[in-house]
């Protein structure tokens, strides 16, 4: 096992006993990414596989893409794109520069991959890119196991849409689960005392409030959206990750559903009327109302 202190806390790279050059990245004990240096196309985590399906379906097989990654981690998805779509041009924006430098030293990228890693805030990095630069924008940003509030709003998504080419796809990793505890007083270390979603009138957070509001926000900005996750997560029975994809064009929902259902941990896809019903009337999030995603329960990663 390899360890380092980075800006986001204590980072560990834990070897995979079943794959000679497989590594899991943990931050303060929470699983973040998985990398197999021998086979970058192998995605070890459920949410990574679902994001990988979006990458696969973003264009015909093998066609190079312009991809923006908001959040770097162990650069798992950037490696996947480089391996499955050679000659792709990629930019990664990662705020934790100490983490990025450590990962690139311990798990180096292959020469010839067109991957540029930049330090800085994800929204600020997004704002520096030219309009219609990207075929695909992948958002996978967590600080202290929570997505920062300013990356959850309609204003943020309008910037994403500006950077995407016509027909381009936005894909986000979103974590949520059953309602938990009091809505206030959790805190994320930045002065926001909310727990990531508006509490009900008793001050308790309802199941999947954050995820429902993110679906509503994406539907406000883009014309088409689809959500894929473990059915237990979509029912609010356990805390976990969901992948939300959106575009101003069309999404290959049927093929996404087929691939998700065939995963080792099968997922379900919601789209169209069923996705609209899933929001339960949740309003879109703005910069004025945004809060971080909810804090995972203590046993989420056991």
Notes on the structure:
With 302 residues, the chain is α/β, with parallel strands linked by helices. It is 26% helix and 26% strand. The chain has helices spanning 46-57, 76-84, 97-106, 122-127, 154-163, 209-221, 231-234, 253-261, 272-278, and strands at 2-6, 9-15, 22-27, 30-36, 66-70, 89-94, 114-119, 134-139, 164-176, 224-229, 240-247, 268-271. The strands form 2 sheets. An 8-stranded mixed beta sheet has the order 7-6-5-8-9-11-10-12, with helices on both faces. β3 (22-27) and β4 (30-36) form a beta hairpin. α1 packs antiparallel against α8 (253-261). It is globular. It starts with a strand and ends in a 24-residue tail after the last helix. The model is unreliable at 181-203 (pLDDT under 50).
The general outline is globular
Number of helices: 9
How much of the residues is beta strand, in percent? 25-35%
Question: Unreliable stretches, pLDDT < 50, 5 or more residues?
Answer: 181-203
Query: Which percent bin holds the helix content?
Result: 25-40%
Q: What would you report as the Rg, rounded to the nearest angstrom?
A: 18 Å
From N to C, what is the helix and strand string? Answer: EEEEHEHEHEHEHEHEHEHEH
Q: What's the β-strand tally?
A: 12
* Strand numbers in spatial order across the main sheet: 7-6-5-8-9-11-10-12
Structural class: alpha/beta
Quote the distance from N terminus to C terminus.
Answer: 18 Å
What profile does the largest beta sheet have?
8 strands, mixed
Mean pLDDT: 91
